[in-house]
Each structure stands twice: as C-alpha cells, then as structure tokens.
Design goal:
CATH topology: Spore Coat Polysaccharide Biosynthesis Protein SpsA, Chain A
CATH architecture: Alpha-Beta Complex
Low-confidence stretches: none
Shape: globular
Mean pLDDT: 96
Oligomer: single chain
Number of helices: 10
Order of helices and strands: EEEHEHEHEHEEHHHEHHH
Distance between the termini: 37 Å
CATH class: Alpha Beta
Largest sheet: 7 strands, mixed
Helix content: 25-40%
Length: about 240
C-alpha cells in the first residue's frame, strides 16, 4: 500500500481586517508569505505545498507570488473557505491536508512533521493539531486532517462559521471525528508569533533580523531562545487579542 499523499495548503488572502495586505509585507527583504514558504519547504513529510486563495482581484498578487515561487495555487470563494480547501484537496490529489495560515512566518517544519506523523502513525485518526491543548506559541499552529474528514465537513457543514473556519466542524465534534493532539513539553502559549497587527509584525521582524543572517534555517528552539534573551521585544504584542475561531 502506497503512502498517503500529504499536501500543505496555505490559507492566504490580502483582505485582512486588522492588517490588510499583511501576507505580502516585507520580512527581512522578502514578502512574509515567501519567508513562510521557505520554512515549509524544509518539511520532510509533505509531498507538495499549495496556496488556497480567493478569486477576488485583490488576491491576484498572491497567485502571482505563488507562480514566481513555483507553488501551485487554487482560487475559490472568499467567504466559503471550507469549499476552497475541499477544492484545493481535490485539485492537488491530497490524501492528507495540512492546513496552515499565511500569517505565520515562524512556522516550524519539524513541528509540522510531528503532527503529520501523529496522524499517519494512527490510521484511526481523522484530525491532529497542536491547538487542541495550546502549549505552543500562536503562530506555530498546524492542523492535519484526512481528505475524507475534509470532504465530510464540506458536504455537511451549513453554519457560516463552519464554512469560514475550515476545521471547526471537525474539531467541535469529537464524537464523530477522532482527534489527536501534539503538545510541547513546556507551556509557551503566552508567546504570540502570528501576524494580525503592526505590533505582531514588529515581533517577527525582530526575530528574523536577529536570527536569519547567521541561521536561515533557525528552529523553534532558536526562536524560544530569542524570546528568553529579548523579553521586551516579545512583549510588544502581548496586549493583542486573538480573533475568535
């Protein structure tokens, strides 16, 4: 039996309400999304990386970046993100879909591989994430689900929130879907490495500017060490409230 085809699908759009255009803002000389893709390409378990963006003309720039980087893209409904992911999974023949969002440039490929391995090693699992019990910083979020679970959600979900938040229909129903978690040994959930505001952007820019020149493939451990050495930098966005899922 052949190994399931694992496809990382990056959810990306230009129309962010809090920081419009954030995914293409500069991060150490390149668009933020390009820096994220650079890190994702170090995954050892992914067979392909693709971008799921909308058909809105504002997102033409994202599709153009994907083409320049040799990354496939799928364009669908801006609001029905679940349909967009189902379409991407079908187009790119994914057996397993890894969902990440384009505002997480510190995404850790080793952590992503741990989540994928957790699902592949237990054929009974439908969904694995490091967010069911949050111990990792925000911005390292990874969700892995089977194509079957994604398609069931796409067929059955009718709540607008379930259509907007791709995996909500799955992880809110542990009686129907078998869920698995990946946790850190220590609780670092107070750190915020996602980009929703200008303060968030300042934090990840500081991490890249300090670490990238000497260690382009810097790790989660390197970023944690940076946070320990520069607590004032990582406190800049402590007041930012996470948008509800």
């Amino acid at each position: 039996m052949s190994r399931p085809r694992v496809v990382i699908v990056i959810q990306a759009r230009m129309g962010s309400s809090r920081l419009p255009g954030k995914v293409l803002m500069d991060l150490h000389g390149r668009p933020l999304l390009e820096r994220q893709i650079e890190r994702l390409r170090r995954s050892r378990t992914a067979d392909a990386i693709a971008i799921a963006t909308s058909a809105d003309e504002r997102d033409d720039a994202i599709a153009a970046l994907a083409q320049r980087l040799g990354i496939a893209s799928f364009r669908g409904d801006e609001e029905d993100v679940l349909a967009r992911f189902a379409g991407a999974a079908d187009t790119f023949q994914a057996d397993v879909v890894v969902r990440v969002t384009a505002d997480c440039p510190l995404i850790d490929p080793d952590l992503l591989d741990r989540c994928v391995a957790r699902l592949l090693d237990d054929p009974g699992l439908d969904y694995v994430s490091n967010t069911l019990e949050r111990t990792y910083p925000r911005g390292l979020d990874v969700e892995v689900l089977t194509r079957d679970a994604l398609e069931r959600a796409h067929r059955e979900a009718s709540d607008p929130d379930d259509r907007e938040h791709v995996t909500r229909f799955v992880w809110r129903q542990p009686g129907r879907f078998r869920l698995g978690g990946v946790a850190d040994g220590d609780d670092h959930s107070a750190l915020r490495w996602t980009v929703d505001t200008q303060e968030d952007l300042e934090v990840v820019r500081a991490v890249f500017d300090d670490l990238y020149p000497d260690r382009p493939a810097f790790t989660y451990a390197d970023a944690l060490a940076h946070a320990a050495e520069h607590p004032a930098i990582h406190a800049r966005n402590r007041h930012v409230r996470q948008k509800p899922a």
